[in-house]
Amino acid sequence: MPVVTVQQGPRTVELKRALVERITDAFVDSLGVPAESVQVWIQETPPESWAVGGTLTADK
């Protein structure tokens, strides 16, 4: 049973639906596992809790 964790900033439900569909398809196509066995966990972090290069993404 593949388990995929995605860490990202907040996205719309529509974008998350498309993402998990494509991730699931990738595992089905490459590993031949049933779609029902693929779990995708999305962990969203707000911009004020994420930094790149020493700067919060909320400040960019």
TrEMBL record:
<comment type="similarity">
    <text>Belongs to the 4-oxalocrotonate tautomerase family.</text>
</comment>
<keyword id="KW-0413">Isomerase</keyword>
<dbReference type="Pfam" id="PF01361">
    <property type="entry name" value="Tautomerase"/>
</dbReference>
<dbReference type="GO" id="GO:0016853">
    <property type="term" value="F:isomerase activity"/>
</dbReference>
<dbReference type="InterPro" id="IPR004370">
    <property type="entry name" value="4-OT-like_dom"/>
</dbReference>
<dbReference type="InterPro" id="IPR014347">
    <property type="entry name" value="Tautomerase/MIF_sf"/>
</dbReference>
<protein>
    <submittedName>
        <fullName>4-oxalocrotonate tautomerase</fullName>
    </submittedName>
</protein>
<feature type="domain" description="4-oxalocrotonate tautomerase-like">
    <location>
        <begin position="2"/>
        <end position="59"/>
    </location>
</feature>
